[in-house]
Amino acid sequence: MILESLNATNFKNIGECSLEFSPKINCLLGNNGMGKSNLLDAIFYLSFTKSFTRVPDSMLIRRGETFGILTGKFERHGFDELINVGFRQGARKSFKRGGKEYKRISTHIGLFPTVMVAPADQALVTDGAEERRRFIDMIISQADAQYLDALMRYNQCLEQRNRLLRDGSTDEFLYESLEGMMDADARLIESRRASYLAELESDFSEYYRQIAGNDEAVGIEYIRNTAAYSSPAKAWADVRGRDTLLKFTSKGPHRDDISFSVCGLPARQTASQGQTKTLTIALRLAQYAFLKRITGHAPLLLLDDIFDKLDAERVARIMEIVSRDDFGQIFITDTNRKHLDEILRHTGPDYRMWHVDRGMFTPLTADETI
């Protein structure tokens, strides 16, 4: 699968652009704040129906404008696929595939698998459990439609239970009925998270070793919030009185966590800045390998300013890894022309490069300076 072209109008700081891409390497060079990451976010949006930065759709429209448009032309299974997104202030977005509006936009997830590696990924290690749950949910949802459906149903029922708790309801029948509906979805969510994380771990460990260049052992542990109970329903029944006081649901998959370790020690407390960056990049590359294996497509790989805070040796190892034939179409942003030229030296002549300045994209050749 490749993204052949992208047209954007009034998306973030991009006024108007029409870009045709290389099926292998696409480089975006420019200073910070010029629009490189915004283009990657546009690509991410075409795959996930939402921004990587999680801002509301209304904030994606260029300042001073009332609408925005994204159009992506993909090659998938040997056929062209056209994805159109339209934003308008005060109106619901339009999301179309092949000119037809989706009845359920969630059915788009997983059709065009994409992996984004960005500076914000350090939050996977340093921040709270919500970031890590979002990470695993994003991976599995691209590969497993049943999981996504269960997750959506669970979250809807969870909101209903929380509403009962906030309203101070004491109707045991209502709680039991709702918790009974939640239980099957919660079990599926927990089971799939555990099995998919176990499958992800071997690729994660191997990529970390290749990037770090040493034998530091890294690990992933799934921490199930209801592990002490025979079922999620049993947990909810047990804590219902406490939840009534707290006014929210304290047990369930929405409270699960993932723990990362380096050399047997918790990464959140002990990993250095370089180890944290290496860990998150290895994790995203493992995500790529997993999705490629499960979906049968080589995902788009978006590398946003990944070389910052890494020593030269680790940068060289990452460049060597992503230059391999294992990887399909890649989009890379950087402020340093040297990094991009080094990657192109490994990958050969099939590339495109642009200089990005205030939302405008100027094509560059390998020997052209800016």
Give structural attributes.
alpha/beta, 370 residues, six-stranded antiparallel β-sheet, Rossmann fold, six-stranded mixed β-sheet, Glutathione S-transferase Yfyf (Class Pi), Chain A, domain 2
Write the layout of secondary structure elements.
Elements: E1 2-11, E2 14-20, E3 25-29, H1 36-48, E4 67-76, E5 79-88, E6 94-97, E7 100-101, E8 114-117, H2 123-126, H3 129-143, H4 145-166, H5 172-212, E9 218-223, H6 232-246, E10 257-262, E11 265-266, H7 267-270, H8 273-295, E12 300-304, H9 312-322, E13 330-334, H10 337-347, E14 351-357, E15 360-364
Parallel strand pairs: 3-13, 3-14, 8-12, 12-13
Antiparallel strand pairs: 1-2, 1-4, 4-5, 5-6, 6-7, 9-10, 10-11, 14-15
Helix pairs in contact: 3-4, 4-5, 5-6, 5-8, 9-10
Short description:
By secondary structure, this protein is of the alpha/beta class.
Provide a descriptive summary of the structure in words:
This protein is an alpha/beta fold. The protein has two domains: 1-113 and 297-370, 3-Layer(aba) Sandwich (Rossmann fold), CATH 3.40.50.300; 121-296, RecF/RecN/SMC, N-terminal domain (Glutathione S-transferase Yfyf (Class Pi), Chain A, domain 2), CATH 1.20.1050. The chain is 43% helix and 24% strand. It has helices at residues 36-48, 123-126, 129-143, 145-166, 172-212, 232-246, 267-270, 273-295, 312-322, 337-347; strands at residues 2-11, 14-20, 25-29, 67-76, 79-88, 94-97, 100-101, 114-117, 218-223, 257-262, 265-266, 300-304, 330-334, 351-357, 360-364. Strands 2-1-4-5-6-7 form a six-stranded antiparallel β-sheet, covered by helices on one side. β14 and β15 form a beta hairpin. α3 packs antiparallel against α4 (145-166), α5 packs across α8 and α9 crosses α10. The two termini are 32 Å apart. The model has no long low-confidence stretch (mean pLDDT 94).
